[in-house]
Design a protein that fits this description.
The chain is an alpha+beta fold. The protein contains nine helices and ten strands. It has a domain of 247 residues: Transposase Inhibitor Protein From Tn5, Chain A, domain 1, CATH 3.90.350.10. Helix 3 runs parallel beside helix 4 and helix 6 crosses helix 8.
Length: 367
């Protein structure tokens, strides 16, 4: 049994024993998403999925579809390709979406979010074919016409300056082959360099451009997979199939840890500052604007990991998986002000000093 567990990520030809089989990861993707749905909080019947790509050095590129929950992202479908492989990603993305089709109940609201670099009409269509709602960001350099208009014009006319927003049904893209009838959501929040521009098939009254803010959680998910959690960045694997099987193990572990962590996070007491003076440092550091989500110093993955370790150390039963999402954002969060130039110079000096110290240590060790 130990030998089988140790070799499960290998292909059949490299396993010991007779009648050994390959683990086909693609057959596990739909059941993985259905498992997450079963463990989802009963009162919440909507789901946000993000599509994005991540790299590991110059070896691998991973195309991933992840469930977004409480600042984390749990991968439910992925494809590993060589970092320098040529060709279109379209067949890979369409294949991943096809594997997940039918895994979410039909009465659920499911958003498929992707950044500007992934937008394509075929991706919009593929998400709709799954019965989900695309929520795809596009660039500002696009022409569209609203209902009742004849000529196409630049969409920048609807959000000419920070502090403006617009939404409505349009025909987007002037070229016939790219043209799309959809809902256009636009908002230029003060403090942002560019406006948020999102295409969806939801009615204007049913959609909120602030939901696109969920997409950034997939970046935290990639961090959890790599140096911030499971340590995939240390992997030396050279076979794409083995990497995909490793990702399956990490995805299952993340469902458990994020589930336990999300439940623990939902039970945290809310910070109260009523007894503190107005100029107390705790008010300045921890209190947040009403439009911002509560501050959390631990990701749900790390919080869940610590809860599981504590249960093991105390010989208690391991907690069951229960995924507890938080409400979707209703307003855009203003960006944090960037560091001052003096702070940037100090940080740069500290980084250079650490590099010199590390190099000196290596020279001393080598001698």
């Amino acid at each position: 049994m130990f030998q089988r567990l140790r070799e499960w990520y290998l292909d059949a030809a490299h396993k010991r024993g007779d009648q050994r089989r390959d683990l086909e990861v693609s057959t596990c993707l739909g059941p993985l998403l259905r498992w997450i749905i079963l463990r989802w909080a009963a009162q919440e019947r909507r789901l946000a999925l993000a599509l994005d790509a991540s790299t590991l050095a110059d070896r691998w590129t991973v195309l991933s579809i992840s469930v977004l929950i409480r600042g984390c992202a749990i991968p439910v479908a992925w494809k590993v390709i060589g970092a320098h492989a040529k060709g279109s990603w379209r067949p890979d993305w369409e294949g991943l979406l096809e594997r997940l089709q039918g895994s979410v109940p039909a009465d659920w609201e499911v958003l498929g979010l992707a950044d500007r670099g992934l937008y394509a009409r075929w991706l919009y269509t593929a998400i709709v074919a799954c019965g989900w709602q695309p929520f795809l960001r596009i660039n500002l350099a696009v022409k569209a016409r609203a209902v009742g208009e004849e000529a196409f014009d630049w969409i920048s006319r609807w959000v000419p300056a920070p502090g403006t927003k617009w939404q409505g049904v349009v025909e987007c893209f002037a070229q016939q082959k790219s043209r799309l009838c959809c809902t256009l959501l636009m908002q230029w929040e003060v403090g942002y360099e560019h406006p948020w521009i999102v295409l969806t098939d939801l009615a204007p009254a049913e959609a909120n451009v602030a939901w696109y803010g969920l997409r950034v959680w997939i970046e935290a998910g990639f961090k959890d997979v790599k140096g911030g959690g499971l340590g995939w960045h240390h992997s030396k694997m050279r076979d794409a199939g083995r990497v995909e099987r490793l990702w399956l193990a990490m995805a299952v572990a993340m469902v458990w840890m994020v589930g336990v962590g999300s439940h623990a996070d939902s039970q945290r007491p809310v910070a109260c500052f009523e007894q503190l003076p107005q100029r107390h440092i705790a008010r300045q550091r921890l209190q947040r604007a009403p439009t911002q989500p509560p501050l959390s110093r631990l990701s749900c993955l790390q919080r869940g990991r610590l809860v599981l370790l504590a249960a093991l150390f105390k010989a208690e039963p391991l907690p069951l998986v229960r995924l507890v999402p938080e409400p979707w954002p209703q307003t855009l969060t203003p960006p944090k002000p960037g560091p001052k130039s003096s702070q940037q110079r100090q940080r740069q000096k500290r980084r250079e000093r650490k590099k010199r110290q590390k190099a000196a240590h290596h020279r001393k060790t080598a001698a």
